[in-house]
Amino acid sequence: MRNLLLAVTRRPEIRYLVFGGLNTAFSYGLYAVALLVLDAWGVPADYAIAITFSWVVSNLTSFLLQRRFVFRGSGHPFREFVKFTSVTLGSFLANLALSWFSASVLGFDTAEQKLVSQLVVTAFLVVVTYVLHKSFSFRKAGAAPSGMVAVEEDEADPAQQGEPGR
């Protein structure tokens, strides 16, 4: 069992599910409490305020967990935080747009419908942000971005060295 646990925790995808899942649950909990309170008070655009509140509170927590436990960041912390926040800010804006769409266009206007809609939006954004954090926020220095292939030159090839071939 110990060997299985060690093998599983070597994979950043699994670590992301665990630690990202913890932070996502925390963030969703903040969203749910804020949404229910704002809905009870009859505040317009309650979902947008709740999303903003939960993002502001959970962004730093998410960065610390992901940097330390998921991607094991080794770059300059401030630079990684700026890159991380640029990704999560994009995710935040996409969340607002998708939540607006579900509330205004699809008509999900009750608190319960907004809570379910947020679960769907969150599931989609979790996948997108993982890919962006792995390939951008916490990419190791000198590593090619995901999807890029490094090409090595063959130093023994005379055509590469400007020598005429035989």
UniProtKB/TrEMBL annotation:
Main location (coarse class): membrane
Pfam family, one: GtrA_DPMS_TM
Keywords of this entry: Membrane, Transmembrane, Transmembrane helix
Membrane topology qualifier: Multi-pass membrane protein
Localization annotation: Membrane
Transmembrane segments: 16-41, 47-65, 86-103, 115-132
GtrA/DPMS transmembrane domain: residues covered: 15-138
Family listed: Belongs to the GtrA family.
PANTHER family hit by this protein: PROPHAGE BACTOPRENOL-LINKED GLUCOSE TRANSLOCASE HOMOLOG (PTHR38459:SF1)
Protein name: GtrA family protein
Biological source species: Microbacterium insulae
